[in-house]
Amino acid sequence: MWLNMAEPCLNEAYAREDIFSDSCGPLEEESCWFAIHTRPRYEKKVTAELQQKGIRAFLPLNSAMHQWSDRRRLVHVPLFPGYVFVRVSSLPIHRISVLRTNGVLSFVGVRNIGVPIPDSEIDAVRAVLDGKTSFKPHPYLKIGQQVRICGGSLDGLTGVLTTVNGDQSLVISVNLIQRSIAMRVQGLRVEAI
C-alpha cells in the first residue's frame, strides 16, 4: 500500500534556500546532520523540545490511516520510528544539549558519539517529502544498482532501483540508521550512475 505524505516534517522553520547549500566540512564549528536515537513514541516530543532549545531538528512524518474499534483516523507517524535528525556542531556543549533532551537515548554511530550524515541523504528525503509523491517505507538495501532521475521535479535525485510488485521503485536510503523509503518511478526516466 502506497502512502501519501501530508506533512513533510515537524520542523517547517528551516529556510528553503539553505536546504541544499548546507555542507558538513572539516571545521569543528560547522554544523552537520546527525541521527539521534529516541525512546519509542517520543520522536515528536523530542523534536518539539529540541526546537524550543533552538536546535535545528528534522522529523520526517508519514500519513497513515489507523483503525480503532470505534473509528478510523488519518494520523502522522514518524517515517523512521525511533530516530530524529539534528543539525549541530560537533562541539561537546551542543551534543550535551541534545543528549539532555527528554526522550533522547544517544547519537547514532560508533560509541554513541554520532557519525555525520551527508547532506545529500537528508536533502533526498526532503525532496521526496516536498514533492508530494506517493511513497512507502522500504527495507534498507545495501546491494543494488545506483540510479539518478532525469527530468521533472525530482531531477538529479539518486537512489537504488528495485522492483516492488512489478513496479519500478527508487529506494532512497539514510545509510547511518539503515532505513529507506521507496517511491514509484513508473513513467520517469532514470539513468545508471
Would you identify the CATH H-level superfamily of the largest domain?
NusG, N-terminal domain
CATH architecture of the largest domain: 2-Layer Sandwich
How many structural domains are formed by the residues?
Answer: 2
Strand content: 35-45%
Q: How is the CATH topology of the largest domain named?
A: Alpha-Beta Plaits
* Rounded radius of gyration (Å): 17 Å
Low-confidence blocks of residues:
1-23
Secondary structure class reads alpha+beta
Describe, in plain words, how this protein is organized in 3D.
- This protein has two domains: 16-119, Alpha-Beta Plaits, CATH 3.30.70.940; 120-192, no CATH class.
- The protein is of the alpha+beta class and 193 residues long.
- Strand 3 (61-67) and strand 4 (72-78) form a beta hairpin.
- It is 16% helix and 37% strand.
- The strands form three sheets. Strands 7-11-10-9-8-12 form a six-stranded antiparallel sheet, with helices on one face.
- The chain is globular, with a radius of gyration of 17 Å.
- The chain has helices at residues 43-52, 92-99, 119-130; strands spanning 31-38, 56-58, 61-67, 72-78, 83-89, 104-107, 135-138, 145-150, 158-164, 167-174, 179-184, 189-192.
- The chain contains three helices and twelve strands, in the order βαββββαβαββββββ.
